[in-house]
Amino acid sequence: MQYFLIVALYDIIYLSNGKGFSHMRCPVCNNVMIVVERCDVELDYCINCRGIWFDFEELSFLSEVIEDVEFEAPNEENIKEVKNSNEKIHRCPRCMSKMKKVMINGNPPMIDCCPNRHGFWFDSGELGEYIQSNSKIEPKGMIKFLGEVIKMK
Q1: pLDDT grade for 144, boundaries at 50, 70 and 90
Q2: CA 120, CA 132: separation in Å to the nearest integer?
Q3: Sheet hosting strand 52-55, strand order edge to edge
Q4: Distance between CA 63 and CA 69 in Å, rounded?
Q5: How far is CA 36 from CA 45, 55, 115, 128, 147, in A?
Q6: What is the pTM of this model?
Q7: Residue 26: predicted pLDDT
Q8: How much is the average pLDDT of 106-116?
Q9: pLDDT category, 21, cuts 50, 70, 90?
Q10: What is the pLDDT of residues 47-87, one digit of tens each?
Q11: Strand partners, 44
């Protein structure tokens, strides 16, 4: 059943955005990611591990595009590096540098951030957790926007 859902999701994403596969490989499982585009926001999505890559400024743009979303996007002041994490270190899919484990405003989840400002990696479920823990209001438009790509509670 899960296989058919993944294939259906792939078909919908591939056919709807006309972009297809990304040039990047997943920093977790090394599979080629696919490009998902909605409202001029382009995400790189791994259909295997369900992780999502955001370029550095895309989270800010996403909060502007979705009407009922009000959260503080990552910036130089609110990104706090987490030292001594037990999580595996991943490499940036753009420059292959070792990414840092960070939290935005000290709120969970801990995500991966390229030290060269290329972007952020969210493991499966982490984007939903990030939006919920950093939103000032209930992010219903965001949930609808991202749909099944992330898990929102």
Answers
A1: low
A2: 17
A3: 21-25, 32-38, 41-45, 52-55, 119-122, 107-113, 100-104, 79-81
A4: 6
A5: 7, 13, 24, 16, 12
A6: 0.76
A7: 96
A8: 92
A9: low
A10: 999 999 999 888 777 777 666 556 677 888 889 999 888 99
A11: 35, 53
Q: List, in sequence order, every residue forming a beta bridge with 113; answer none if it has no partner.
A: 100, 120
Report the alpha-carbon distance of residue 106 to residue 115 in Å, rounded: 18
User: Residue 43: beta bridge partners?
Assistant: 36
Cα gap 97→116, rounded to integer Å? 8
Q: Tokens for 114?
A: 């390229």
- CA-nearest of 101, 107, 149 to 128 is 149
Query: Are 120 and 56 contacting, i.e. CB atoms less than 8 angstroms apart?
Result: yes
Spatial CA neighbour of 146 closest among 86, 29, 62 = 62
| Phi-psi region at 50: left, alpha or beta (left = phi > 0; alpha = psi -120 to 50) | left
